[in-house]
Every structure is written in structure tokens, then in C-alpha cells.
Specification:
Layout lengths: L1 H16 L17 H4 L12 E3 L6 E6 L7 E16 L4 E3 L2 E2 L2 E17 L4 E12 L22 E10 L8 E7 L37 E10 L2 E9 L18 E2 L7 E9 L22 E19 L3 E21 L4 E13 L5 E4 L7 E2 L14 E5 L1 E11 L11 E13 L6 E15 L1 E16 L2 E18 L1
Antiparallel strand pairs: 1-2, 2-3, 3-6, 3-24, 4-5, 4-18, 6-7, 7-8, 8-9, 9-10, 10-11, 11-13, 12-14, 13-14, 14-15, 15-16, 16-20, 17-19, 20-21, 21-22, 22-23, 23-24
Keywords: Signal
Protein name: Porin
Organism: Fibrisoma montanum
Length: 489
């Protein structure tokens, strides 16, 4: 009977939420609210132990209270990001064996279900399930490596499955957790909250081993995290996946460094932030907010690292195999604060320097939700160069920056939302490129209902390359235009 009442309450809430005015905005943070927004102080009026949907200035949320105060609860969130994209293809691009100079595609960049709960004063359970980069080529090639037919229906998987224990009751000093998690080192963009990002997409290069020795940036890890005064920290030891299990044929051993196919060493990582003003959200494991839309006053300095012994290999001469450590670190500053609290204007900015050592001449092309399947103009020591791909990862130095400005609330009238334009740059000085690479993006968010309902128009300009001996030289530029619609509850 309890299950029937729970389902009935859920259906009733969804029906009511669909009729709420679009002007009520959710505070930007992770896919879940910070602890201070979900826990009531002692003596506060209790909520019923049921799905709660509130209006006005309160949150609309799918939440089941486990105690009368609401400090113990279980929540569910949903996220969907749909892309409509026009892309100028890289040289030699083919789509299902047909040459294409331009492509138009429709895809799901992310579709996620998040389930988490504060089960007791000290215990948190966090689970996320979903899929990424689902377009018409999602199952390409037509056959898997073992010769069996590919299946476009198997893309969804568990992103996170974490249990966490809060060592000091009602204090964020130390939380210890373990499981499949995005708790990472290197930078805030190595563990981004995708529901609240400023731009249309995150700087994926900061997810340094994504889908090589991790699962979409998640790793099997034991970690400690917390906030002590102005310091926010997270440290972790991770058990990386073998490169052979990422679903693609590993690159052959060559003079170009790549992830080693022999041996297995643990990975150590950490991220440390000094918070000058407000503290950042700290409830859900790892995830860091993209922009708070002026709801907080944030100025942070951060430093992070990832290191793994003998993670990489390459060949010197004709026979000698050399193993090298992977060492990555970064320093950055993040600002996100209101300009005028009365009108709701705000600014968000980030600048970071990344020192990336994957071993000699490591370079990896990547195209987000690539709209192409092959190329007739391969580049030496590189794969996946078709479609919208560019050298996203490599041994060398990267400077990344982004900036955005939030216009006044109700710019188009009460309940009709506002605008937030932005710009991004990724400047990469990689060993295998003859010149420094620049990828530039400009975009415009139409925040219909904050991050819960928003349209984003995004244009990106990237370089294209040709072989220059063992290096790659730029020969021009290509662009892509994307319209994204995000729905989040």
C-alpha cells in the first residue's frame, strides 16, 4: 500500500509541476541542491514524508522525506540535453562511407537520472544512471571488435554509485566515500555539474583520461573530501580501467606515447580550493557548479593534480619499450558573483593553466558526439580525426578561459526569462603540433527558467591539420553551430 501511495504522490507532483509558472528558478549548483537548501534547522516545521513540490521562491523537487524534519531524505532528478547541429567537416570526412563536407545531425548530448539521499545524519547514497552522445552514429561501426552486430540500445550505464560517510556530525570537515565516482583531481572542470554549466558544454580536455582508463570520467575510487574554514579539498586513490576495455581497438605501440597495455598501477589525485567569500556547494560527491547565476558570491583559487606511475608507454628505436609516468597539474581562478543584486545581473569567469605530461608526443583527437564515422585522409599517429574532431588532449601546456554575463532577471517580462552570453578559449601548446592551437567559442544562453529550462546557441571555431613529418601542421579552420535545449528537474 505504501508503494501505491508513493507512486500516486509522484504522479500528482509531476502533474502539478507542469502547471507551475516559468519564472520560478532553481538555484544553480550540481544536479542536486547543497545541504543547506535541503535540511531544516532544529525546531523548524516538519514536512510530510512524501514527494514534495513547492512553488514561489522554494524549490520544485522530487523528494521523499525519511524523517519529520526532512534532514533525512531521498531525491530523484532528471536531465536531458538535445542538440541540433550544423558542422563543417574536417578534410576527408565520411558518414557511413559517403564523403560529407557538411553535416546536420540531431542528438542527445546527455540524458541522466540522478538518485541520492541523506539516509542518516552521516550516511549519503549517490547513484546516477544515463547515457551520453547519442546520435544516429551511436552504434557505428556496424560490428563490434569481436564481430558481433552493434546494438544502438545499450548506451545507458551507471555513471556513479557511491556510498559516503560524514566523520564529524553536522560538520563538513571530513567525508569518506568509495565506489564509482567523478571525484577527481586536476580542476573543477574534471568533475563538472553538467546541469549548471555556463557554456553549452564543458572543456572536456580537463577530464584528462575520459573513456581511456575511466568510465566517462568516473573511476573506482576511495576518497576523502570536505571543507575546513576557507579550504575545500578532495583527495582520491583510484583503480584505473585497462585501456583495452574502453570499447575501441587500442593504438599500436609506437614512438608516440599512449596508455600502456601492460601493468596496472593506482592513480593518485587531489584538488584544493581557497574560498575567499561564500562556500561552494558540498553535498553531492565531486560535482562542482558551473555558474550560480548570481545566487552566491564566489572567488576561488584552485590547484589540482593527477599522477600515475608507468601509466604510459612508447617505443624507442625498433625494439625498446619505455614506460613513463603520467603527471598532470593545474592552477586556476574562478569567479561567480552578482553585479547588482536588485536587478539580478551577475558575472562568471574562469582562467586556468594546465601542465599536462602524458609522455613523449602524446596527442589525442576527440569530437564531441562526432557526426561522422570515418575519413579518407588519415593523419599519422592519430585516430578519430573526422567530423568535428580536434587535438583535444596532448602532452604540453593548455590555457583555458571562459567568461559570461547574466542580464537582469525578467529581461523579457515577468516569467519570460533572461539572457547570458559567454565566450570560451582553449589554447594548447602540444608537442606534436607545429603551432599553438586555438579553439574559440561564443554562445548565448536563453534562461527561460534558470538552468531548468534553457536554450543555448553556440558557435565553435577549430583548426584542421595535415602531416608535417611526425608532427601536425594547421591548414585552416572549420566551425560548428549548435542549438541545445536543456530540461532539468
Amino acid at each position: 500500500m505504501k508503494n501505491v501511495l508513493f507512486v500516486a504522490a509522484l504522479l500528482g507532483y509531476v502533474s502539478a509541476a507542469a502547471q507551475q509558472p516559468t519564472g520560478a528558478q532553481l538555484p544553480a549548483d550540481t544536479l542536486a541542491p547543497p545541504a543547506e537548501q535541503t535540511q531544516r534547522p532544529p525546531g523548524a516545521a516538519s514536512r510530510p514524508s512524501a514527494i514534495v513540490g513547492t512553488t514561489g521562491t522554494d524549490r520544485n523537487e522530487l523528494k521523499y522525506n525519511l524523517n519529520e524534519s526532512g534532514s533525512h531524505f531521498f531525491k530523484v532528478t532528471f536531465l536531458n540535453q538535445t542538440w541540433l547541429r550544423l558542422n563543417q567537416s574536417n578534410p576527408g570526412t565520411t558518414v557511413n562511407q559517403v564523403p560529407k563536407t557538411n553535416t546536420f545531425d540531431i542528438g542527445l548530448r546527455r540524458t541522466r537520472i540522478q538518485m541520492f539521499g541523506q539516509l542518516s545524519d552521516r550516511v549519503l547514497l549517490y547513484v546516477q544512471f544515463g547515457m551520453n552522445n547519442f546520435n544516429s552514429l551511436n552504434a557505428f561501426p556496424a560490428y563490434n571488435n569481436n564481430g558481433t552486430p552493434a546494438n544502438r540500445k545499450v548506451a545507458a550505464f551507471f555513471h556513479d554509485a557511491v556510498g559516503e560517510y560524514q566523520v564529524f556530525k553536522n560538520k563538513d570537515y571530513l567525508k569518506i566515500g568509495a565506489g564509482l565516482t567523478i571525484v577527481n583531481g586536476l580542476s573543477r572542470f574534471s568533475q563538472p555539474s553538467v546541469s549548471s554549466i555556463l557554456s553549452m558544454d564543458v572543456p572536456v580536455f580537463a577530464q584528462a583520461t575520459v573513456d581511456q582508463t575511466d568510465e566517462f570520467s568516473r573511476k573506482l575510487s576511495l576518497y576523502a573530501r570536505g571543507q575546513v574554514g576557507p579550504i575545500d579539498y578532495r583527495i582520491a586513490v583510484s583503480d584505473p580501467f585497462p585501456i583495452q576495455t574502453n570499447g575501441a581497438v587500442p593504438p599500436p605501440l609506437s614512438s608516440f606515447s599512449n596508455f600502456a597495455q601492460k601493468g596496472q598501477n593506482k592513480q593518485f589525485q587531489g584538488l584544493f580550493l581557497y574560498q575567499f567569500f561564500d562556500k561552494e556547494a558540498n553535498q553531492t560527491p565531486g560535482y562542482m557548479t558551473g555558474t550560480y547565476l548570481g545566487k552566491k558570491k564566489i572567488l576561488n583559487l584552485e590547484g589540482g593534480f593527477i599522477t600515475q606511475k608507468a601509466a604510459m608507454w612508447h617505443r624507442e628505436g625498433t625494439a625498446d619499450t619505455v614506460y613513463t609516468d603520467m603527471n598532470l597539474w593545474s592552477l586556476a581562478a574562478f569567479l561567480d558573483m552578482p553585479v547588482n543584486r536588485r536587478t539580478g545581473t551577475a558575472v562568471s569567469a574562469y582562467i586556468g593553466y594546465f601542465k599536462l605530461n602524458y609522455g613523449p608526443d602524446y596527442l589525442r583527437f576527440n569530437g564531441i558526439m562526432n557526426p561522422a564515422s570515418g575519413t579518407t585522409v588519415p593523419l599519422p599517429g592519430a585516430s578519430g580525426t573526422q567530423g568535428n574532431a580536434f587535438p583535444m588532449f596532448g602532452t604540453g601546456n593548455v590555457v583555458y578561459g571562459q567568461v559570461g554575463y547574466l542580464f537582469r532577471q525578467d529581461l523579457f517580462g515577468a516569467g519570460n526569462g533572461t539572457l547570458m552570453p559567454y565566450a570560451q578559449m582553449q589554447i594548447g601548446d602540444y608537442q606534436r603540433l607545429t603551432k599553438t592551437m586555438g579553439v574559440y567559442t561564443i554562445g548565448l544562453n536563453y534562461l527561460i527558467n534558470g538552468h531548468n529550462s534553457k536554450l543555448t546557441l553556440d558557435y565553435q571555431s577549430r583548426p584542421i591539420y595535415e602531416a608535417a613529418g611526425t608532427q601536425l601542421a594547421p591548414t585552416g579552420r572549420r566551425g560548428q553551430l549548435v542549438l541545445q535545449y536543456q530540461v532539468f528537474i
